[in-house]
Design brief:
Layout lengths: L1 H16 L9 E5 L11 H9 L4 E8 L5 E3 L11 H4 L17 H4 L15 E2 H15 L4 E6 L2 H6 L4 H11 L4 E10 L2 H15 L1 E8 L9 E4 L2 E4 L8 H8 L4 E5 L15 H8 L2 E7 L11 H7 L8 E4 L2 H13 L21 H5 L1
Parallel strand pairs: 1-2, 1-12, 2-5, 5-6, 6-7, 7-10, 10-11, 11-12
Antiparallel strand pairs: 2-3, 3-4, 8-9
Helix pairs in contact: 2-5, 7-8, 9-10
């Protein structure tokens, strides 16, 4: 009897371990609304992203001089507009023109870089929130907006409060309490702490926060020590104790694809992924761009597959959401059975067949 039970248990475990596995599909988030077809950020690109089946958009936010929340990929206008010739007196330093040095009306006088024959100007967060509401009312699409606060410390040094202006805009759009379709994210840890502990309760809002983790090069966040501004060091965040601390303030983290897999596509070692799931933190993978394909990926779809199977992400930030949304539709319409060999230590050792089976 004991041999019979062991035999059937062996069969059951082996069957369960070889059943087809279907990974949970991560959300596809259009970086600045990019679909691979229209210039971004623009309302037309965001509308197309929703129509193509993308789940949301990552939008960088900066302030204008008159405190309007603008959707821009960078705080510096020098490389993306003709501001140097139109408003040469607004330079903060040589060839550096912060957006908060110009009013909304002046920003809309600039010539913005875009692929011909498209021409577009800057858009505001207020316009995006209105479009989000329209898409939900007319198409039933609740487009998720990952709102990224760009260099809030630089805004503060210039006398502007980016986080407060963003929350005022969100509340003026009619939002209150829990809002699942809006997320706030930043590389600035202290600003996220301020949002969680002070500003969100003050404005009566409950939004998910995402801690973005960068290299320690000072490009995105700095910290003042003894009167000197130094690059922020993110290393503590990926330790076990660091993740526990993050889990008290934020709902997820964002990492560039290069920090999760090497050039061959092998997941980097460490227990970070397991710790994330244990703590209930989500993983946002950034940098899935056409121009940044690692050597192991033939195209963007193959790169995204890595973060759906071996490194299960909750959301993917990409500059061609249309391609990934189409690949996801095809995958869901034509599911393929995938037998994954179980780890060897999970397979029970062979047992002798019971006598009744041998007699057959």
């Amino acid at each position: 009897m004991k041999h019979t039970q062991t035999f059937f248990l062996t069969c059951l475990i082996t069957l369960l371990l070889t059943l087809p596995l279907q990974a949970q599909e991560p959300q596809i988030i259009a970086d600045q609304g990019q679909t691979g077809a229209l210039p971004a950020p623009s309302l037309a690109a965001l509308t197309l992203a929703a129509a193509l089946g993308c789940d949301g958009a990552r939008l960088g936010l900066v302030l204008s001089q008159d405190n309007q929340v603008m959707v821009l990929s960078t705080i510096d206008l020098g490389g993306i507009t003709d501001v140097a010739t139109r408003f040469p007196d607004r330079a903060k330093t040589e060839n550096s023109f912060p957006a908060f040095a110009l009013s909304l009306a002046e920003l809309r006088q600039l010539a913005w870089q875009s692929a011909p024959p498209y021409h577009h100007g800057p858009i505001t967060l207020n316009e995006v929130l209105a479009l989000q509401r329209l898409l939900k009312d007319r198409l039933g699409r609740d487009l998720i907006l990952n709102l990224e606060l760009r260099q809030p410390r630089q805004h503060q040094l210039a006398g502007h409060d980016l986080a407060r202006a963003v929350l005022e805009t969100i509340r003026a759009a009619g939002h209150s309490g829990r809002v699942d379709s809006l997320r706030l994210q930043s590389y600035d840890h202290e600003e996220l702490r301020r949002l969680r502990q002070d500003l969100l309760p003050e404005y009566g809002l409950n939004l998910d926060l995402i801690q973005l983790i960068d290299d320690n090069d000072g490009q995105e966040a700095q910290v003042e020590q003894w009167g000197v501004w130094l690059p922020y060091n993110y290393d503590w965040m990926l330790s076990r104790s660091g993740l526990r601390l993050l889990a008290t303030l934020v709902q997820g983290i964002g990492l560039d694809q290069s920090r999760l897999a090497d050039a061959s596509g092998t997941p980097l070692p460490g227990d970070t992924l397991a710790d994330l799931k244990t703590l209930g933190l989500t993983l946002q993978v950034r940098g899935l761009d056409q121009g940044r394909l690692p050597s192991h990926a033939q195209d963007l779809t193959q790169l995204a597959d890595l973060f759906t199977t071996l490194i299960p992400a909750d959301s993917l930030i990409t500059d061609n959401c249309g391609q990934l949304a189409q690949a996801r539709r095809q995958r869901l319409l034509n599911p393929q059975t995938q037998n994954i060999r179980p780890p060897i230590d999970l397979i029970p050792a062979p047992v002798p067949l019971p006598a009744p089976f041998l007699q057959r």
